[in-house]
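User: I'm writing a short report section on ligand binding and want a predicted complex to refer to. Could you take this sequence and zinc ion and write out the structure as tokens? A short remark afterwards would be nice.
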Amino acid sequence: MNHRMRRFLSAAVIFALITSVAGCGITLQYADGGPASPPTSPEETASPSPSAVVSESPSPSPSPSPSEPPLKLVPFDGIVEHIFFHPVVAYPELAFDGDSKAEGIDKNMVTASEYSKMLQSLYDKGYILVDMNDVWSEYTDDAGVLRMKKETLMLPEGKKPLIISYDDVNYYNYMFTNGFTHKLVIRDGEIWSYGLDPDGKTVYSQELDAITILDQFVKEHPDFSLNGAKGCLCLTGYEGILGYRTMTDTHGMTAEMEARRQAEIEAVKPIVAKLKETGWYFGSHSWGHISLSNSEFSTAKADTERWLKEVGTLVGPTALYFYPFGARPDGGDVRNTGPIFKYLQEKGFRVFASVGMESYSKIKTDISAVICDRMHPDGSTLRTQRDRYLKFYDAKLVFDEARPDYGVNWD
Ligand SMILES: [Zn+2]
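Assistant: Sure. The structure tokens for the complex follow:
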């Protein structure tokens, strides 16, 4: 998240904006007054330095000056590619052990090894991470109506913008026995993952989790990130967030359960703050991972209220919504603007992401909102859509041989 957006978000929190303010990035509207408590994130401090971006590339010709000239920034108005990942598999031997989860993990996830290779390939192909909040912004048109518009990004010459989002960064219970890390923690001022290896031994690592792997990659390659941007963490709420069990129970809470929940809430606050400080930002993936394509309005409303209360209060304002299962509400949001879509927009969401075969996006003309599709690097596309993803990486070169033998359609 860049400096302007940080300042903007702080202002949004402080003043609990009811009306919108035009500016860089997405303008947030909180019909319900916004989060109950301001996020504890030190948003004004330790902004990722943009200097790394402007000084890393070698000068094209030898310069007599000892200081390198700043990298030339050029306007970019083309397609902003958008890909998304689920949590990555830390231990393939646990993920692909033939149990009932193995097939789904193979289809929807990539391994840590594949993910690292994909990042390297994306970097080699000239992609640069941008903050999704900087891609579109809200403004008031001549008639006084709020609209979204696409921003012209200013990028180092030759770079192509890329959004990465990460769904279900919740560290669900089922993942603990299926080869994933268990939670994010802070060690020595940095984010690490905590988990157990196949022998049950405790492991703190920065090489087994999608977040820490990207952190380390950007540290080594600062020019892979525009203004320190990393990715969007798309959170549900039903098993808490980021490995912390911050959720309420639908069957009621005992005093003991509530005390435990409050302890988890306190424990996750510094993790959220550290993630924000290091370029990560957040979006909603619904509270209960519900499919909006077959939800009643009342279900969608209750789910959203619960997300805002249990997750929004912890991660702060967000205008980004990521449909679970990629399922669009109201019979589809491409042409329709139905009651669920309208409700979510009233709650402050402006960009609505589904899943598709390309990085499609469309600014809606009847309401201030953007709809988009994300591409999905995972086992299914690795096995069957090598050509479509060649602009990002070559499945042949990244495919993890630890995967089960389900076949591929390339050789
Ligand atoms: Zn999901």
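A remark for your report: The radius of gyration is 21 Å. Residues 255-277 form the longest helix (23 residues).
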